[in-house]
Structure formats: C-alpha cells, structure tokens
Amino acid sequence: MNLANGLNLIMPDIRTLCCRKIVGVAVDAGIPPSKISSLSSGEFVGMVADDPDNKIELKIFHSSILNDHEALRKEQRAYKSIPVVRQINSSIVQKNYLQIKQ
User: Fold this and answer.
1) Rounded distance, CA 4 to CA 31, Å?
2) Distance between CA atoms of 9 and 14, rounded to whole angstroms?
3) CA distances from 1 to 36, 51, 84 (A)
4) CB atoms within 10 A of CB 33
5) What are the phi and psi torsion angles at 54 (to 5°)?
6) Whether 5 contacts 32, CB under 8 Å
7) DSSP per position, 69-83
8) Are strands 60-64 and 43-47 parallel, antiparallel or unpaired?
9) Do 13 and 25 form a contact (C-beta atoms < 8 A)?
C-alpha cells in the first residue's frame, strides 16, 4: 500500500438519518494523491484520529520542517569518527553464516 492510498479517505459530516439513527456515512478524499505526490523535500501531510471524549477540530495537516542549517553544520563539525573495533572480511562472514546454519 502506498502513502497516497493509505491517507486519502475521511468521513465528512454528510450523514443519512432515518428515525434518528445514523444508517450511512459518506466517504470523501481527505488528502488527495496529487497533493502527496507534489510535496517538496521537508514537507509532510497527515491525518490524526480523535475519540469521543477528546475531539480534535483539525484532523488533517500540511507542514514543513525548518532546519537551522548553520547549527546543523556546527554540530556535524563536532562529530567524531567511530573507531574500528575489528576488521571483517567475507571469509569471516561465511564462517559465521555456516556456524549459525548448523
């Protein structure tokens, strides 16, 4: 299932009433696949669910991530290399595989 198909259905306030009972609820597109396919890098859309005790008015959102690029560069310059613990080659991997397979 792709992202577009997983997020494109919501239940709007279109209801069919019969003798004060809900007998059907219409289903409509919430986030159209065209919107998802046109997102730029860092943008995201989504839907959230609520429950009867905690209603959420705005269930669909479209937002973007704003990065402080200078702070990220500063953080990256402070990164340290991961030390080599041991050297691995294909014969060691093959030996371990055969040992596990037994």
Assistant:
1) 8
2) 14
3) 14, 25, 40
4) 14
5) -140, 80
6) no
7) HHHHHHHHHT--PPP
8) antiparallel
9) no
* Residue 98 tokens, joined: 């055969």
The answer to whether 8 and 47 have CB atoms below 8 angstroms apart is no
Q: What is the pLDDT of residue 56?
A: 81
Q: In which residue are the tokens 């397979």 written?
A: 101
DSSP H or E segment with residue 96: helix 90-101
pLDDT, position 40 = 87
User: If you search the block for the tokens 């209603």, which residue do you land on?
Assistant: 55
Are 7 and 31 within 8 A, CB to CB?
A: yes
The residue to which tokens 């402080």 are assigned: 68
Phi, psi of 96, rounded to the nearest 5 degrees = -65, -40
Confidence band for 24, pLDDT divided at 50, 70 and 90: very low
Q: How far is CA 100 from the centre of its chain?
A: 35
- Kindly state the tokens that stand for 52: 């009867």
Place of tokens 């041991």: 86
- Cα dihedral 39→55→21→27 (10° resolution): 0
